[in-house]
Amino acid sequence: MDLLEHHQAGSRITLIGMGANMGMTVAKGVAGVYFHSSALLADAAHSLSDILGDVVTLYTFRKSRKPADLTHPYGYGRYEALGTLFVSAFLVAAGVGIGTHALEHVVRFMPDLFTATVSSGAVESAREMLGSAVTSSGGDAASSSSGASSLLSSYLGHDHSHAAAHKVVDGSVVVDPRAIWFAIGSIVINEALFQATMKVGRRTNSDVLVANAWHHRSDALTSLVSVGAIAGAIVGFPILDAIGGLVVSTMLAKSGLSMAADAVREITDTPPSPQLTHSVADALKDVCDDVEEVRGFDNVQCRKSGPFVHVRVTLIFAPDETAACVEKAIETIQAELRKRLDFVQTVDVNVATK
Ligand SMILES: [Zn+2]
């Protein structure tokens, strides 16, 4: 696969993701209004913000693959690290958001649980209330996690902001059960986007595509937690919802932070993994074996630049070698190494004699 094909594959999958997010924004937005679910509306707003992440991914993916020129003699690869930093920050923000939300539930739910244990009558009525609410809502898709536990806590006398997610008529909750299909659809679409984007990201050696892929999966998990929360409420453990939310948010924040750390390491010129340097050294050994003027090499250094790597190496020549021969040998080695490892963008050579 050459650079042009990489370019097209990466742009295509990002545009598909962007189109899907636009579709989900409209679908959830319309459904939110139609089914009276403010939670679905909030989810629509999230999909709208995801489009921004897709725009950044597309821009930095394309920019980083521009050939080197006078203003950027080492190419534009680092634009990808900037894009990764941005997309990772979104992922961490999503994790913190879901985590705070889930923690609020845990904190509010604990005293309720205690109160409920003391007065068993309240538990019974709460169960009844919860049971009928779940049946009637069938599970408000996006309100997901919040729905069930908020119902219980609001019934037990704790006012809850999530009550707004449900239309309350004559004291009973009315959420159109069809709303759940939007959460399920969101899981399917986002997981498919994760798989497809991850595949292209690995093939094109693109960190920003990998980061955006993880974002698609985070969206799928968010919707999954929503659906799982409703199931938890049905079996009588509404707190499962909050616990699920905490698990997911920790995962999101962790993967976002580790990708952001990788991007920062790249931007600050921290050497990449030793495996990468080893694979470059292995290829250099093969290449040097074929050029008889070169007696060996030393000091292999790699610098990552988005999908590319810049290599610096010291080549060792005999003291009596002519400048013309040295020049020709260096050119051969540079060309051969770049042919062998397509991610090598430049090869800077120092000369030593021995
Ligand atoms: Zn998202």
Explain what you see.
With 354 residues, the protein is mainly alpha-helical. It has two domains: 3-267, Up-down Bundle (Alpha-lytic protease prodomain-like); 274-353, 2-Layer Sandwich (Alpha-Beta Plaits), CATH 3.30.70.1350. Helices cover 69% and strands 11% of the residues. The strands form two sheets. A three-stranded mixed β-sheet has the order 3-4-5. A two-stranded antiparallel ribbon has the order 1-2. The longest helix has 40 residues, at 79-118. It is elongated and about 85 Å long. Mean pLDDT is 78; it is low at 117-175. The structure holds zinc ion. Zinc ion binds at residues 46, 50, 94, 215, 218-219. Zinc ion (ZN) is lined by residues 46, 50, 94, 215, 218-219. It holds the Pfam family ZT_dimer. Residues 16-112, 163-267 form the Cation efflux protein transmembrane domain. One of its GO terms (molecular function) is monoatomic cation transmembrane transporter activity.
Query: And the CATH topology of the largest domain?
Result: Alpha-lytic protease prodomain-like
Instruction: Quickly count the domains.
Output: 2
| Shape summary | elongated
Q: How many angstroms does the end-to-end distance come to?
A: 40 Å
Oligomeric form: single chain
DSSP strand tally: 5
Q: Identify every distinct bound molecule in the structure, by name, code or SMILES.
A: zinc ion
Q: Please outline the major beta sheet.
A: 3 strands, mixed
Order of helices and strands: HHHHHEEHHHHEEHE
As residue ranges, the low-confidence spans are 117-175
In the CATH hierarchy, what is the class of the largest domain? Mainly Alpha
Name the beta content range.
5-15%
Helix percentage: 55-70%
Number of helices: 10
Q: Strand pairing plus helix content: what structural class?
A: mainly alpha
Domain Cation efflux protein cytoplasmic: 281-347
Membrane topology: Multi-pass membrane protein
Protein name: Mitochondrial metal transporter
Subcellular location: Membrane
